Structure formats: C-alpha cells, structure tokens
Amino acid sequence: MDPRLKEQQLKKKKLLKRLRKKHQDRGRQPLPLKESFGPFSHRNNTAGSRIYRWAAVCLGLLCVFLFTAVLVLWFRFMEEKDQLEANYSNLTTERDQLEISYNNLIIERDQLYTSYTSLTKETQNLDLTTERDWLQERLSDLGKRLMTHINKPEWRYFSSSVHYISIVEKTWNESRNDCMKKEADLVIINNKEEQDFIEMLRQRKEAWIGLTDNENEGIWKWVNGSRLTTEFWYGGEPNNYGEEDCAVAGFGSTNEKSCADYPCSYWRVCICERRILS
Ligand SMILES: [Ca+2]
Ligand SMILES: [Ca+2]
Ligand SMILES: [Ca+2]
C-alpha cells in the first residue's frame, strides 16, 4: 500500500474516533459503525440511486401509461359523443318528418271527411232527384191514363179505378172476356164505398161482378184470386140453388146487401173495372 494513502486512512480513523467520543460526550446516540462510511457507504448510495432511478422510470412509465389510457378514453369519449350527436340529429330529423307526416294525415283526414260529407249530400240529392223523377213520370202517366178514360163517357172514375157497365147482356164468362178486351176485368168490390158506387152505376139492373166459386164450391174468390172478405150477400144468398157459381149485384130490393149467386150461364149486363194505379 502507498504510505501516503495509509497515512490518510490512519488520520481518518483517528478523526472518526474523536468524533465518536465527542458525540458520546454530548449524550447523543452513537454514530453508525464504520461500515456506514468509507467504501461501504459509497456502495449503499449507489444501490439507493439505482432504486430511485428504477422507481422514477416506473413512475414515468406509469404516467405514460396513464396518459395514454386517458388519451384513448378521451378519443373514445369524443367518438361516442359524436355518434350520440349524430343519432340525436337523426332522431330530430325523423321526429320532424313524423310531425310533417302526422300533419299531412290530419289534413287528408279532414279532406276525406269533407269529401264523405259532400258525397253523402250528393247521394241524398241523387236519391231525392231519382224519386222526384219517378214520381213525375208516374204522375204524367196517371194524368194520361185519366185523360184517356175520363174523356170516354161510358167509363166512370172511382177510387183509382175506372168502371164501365155494359149494355148487352151475356154470360159471366163472356162478360169477363169483354172486360179483358177493354184491358179491364169484372169489378172487384173492395169496400162499402165501392159497393155504393156500384149500386149507383148499375141503375137497378142486375150485373155480373168478378166473384165466383167455380173452382171450389162455397169458397168465393174475386177474379184476382183474393178471398172474399167483405160480404154484401142478400139474405139467404149464396144458396147455390141448382148450380150457382157466379155472383151478381142488384138482387133484391135493398141497396145495402144486393149480391146473390146465379148460374154462370145466365145472361146479364156486367160491370168492368180497370185499375189506373197498378
Ligand atoms: Ca174495386
Ligand atoms: Ca156455387
Ligand atoms: Ca142463389
């Protein structure tokens, strides 16, 4: 060993010894052992520096990692924010379009309701017009038929019908054929008023009327096939005396009930009736 270095170490030891003694005289804790100084102390300092450096490196890496994570999260947040804003904008647009569609539907509904109301009124007017035209046509036809028959003196109007009394006497069947040739039929007495009219028209003559039981004895029917409901039989009639299947008006003395059954082969005048309103 170099004598100078050895001398320095001895001085250093002596200095250290004095410092310890002085330190103990002052009542303080003993100074660390000599391993804490000198070459050993230098090594410890070097190891602590390494730990600090590693810690600093780790801390730096952690900061970088955290910064990177924050940066990534920030970008993702911004990306999602933009996406949400875009979705919100799309939803707003769709909502506006739906509002426009809704308003258009309301307008169309109102227009349809107006059209429906107009069509209903037009249909009602059309129905009324059709009914009016039909009534005018019927009225015109009735007027023509009335004029046709009323202008003929042998036909008499009563209750929507015109009546005709023949001059020549014939059997019941021949009389009915004559009526049909005149587009009429033997008279059907519908009520008391028509019975009174027939009594006035026949002028005390016995006249065939459109009533017979030639299909089933005792079952009297009018020439239109309807059953006899209002009866004007003279007392004791019908009696089918011999074979009597056809009815006359004007039998007996009373005008109230003057109908009787006669043989259809008898010759009598007849009363025809033509309906004006069929
Ligand atoms: Ca009648
Ligand atoms: Ca009879
Ligand atoms: Ca009789």
Explain this structure.
By secondary structure, the protein is α+β, with helices and mostly antiparallel strands. The chain has 2 domains: 30-121; 155-275, Mannose-Binding Protein A, Chain A (Roll), CATH 3.10.100. It is 56% helix and 12% strand. Strands 1, 2, 3, 4, 5, 6, 7 and 8 form an 8-stranded mixed beta sheet that branches. β4 (207-212) and β5 (221-222) form a beta hairpin. Mean pLDDT is 87; it is low at 35-40. The protein binds calcium ion (3 copies). One calcium ion binds at residues 237-239, 241, 244, 260-261.
Fold topology:
Layout: H1 3-25, H2 38-150, E1 155-158, E2 161-165, H3 172-181, E3 185-186, H4 192-202, E4 207-212, E5 221-222, E6 246-249, E7 259-262, E8 269-275
Parallel strand pairs: 4-8
Antiparallel strand pairs: 1-2, 2-8, 3-8, 4-5, 4-6, 6-7
The chain binds calcium ion (3 copies).
Keywords:
4 helices, Mannose-Binding Protein A, Chain A, 278 residues, eight-stranded mixed β-sheet, alpha+beta, single chain
Give me the secondary-structure category: alpha+beta
* Large-scale geometry: rod-shaped
State the fourth-level CATH superfamily of the largest domain: Mannose-Binding Protein A, subunit A
The biggest beta sheet reads: 8 strands, mixed
Q: What's the pLDDT, averaged over the residues?
A: 87
Question: How many distinct beta strands?
Answer: 8
Report the order of strands and helices: HHEEHEHEEEEE
Radius of gyration: 69 Å
* CATH class category name of the largest domain: Alpha Beta
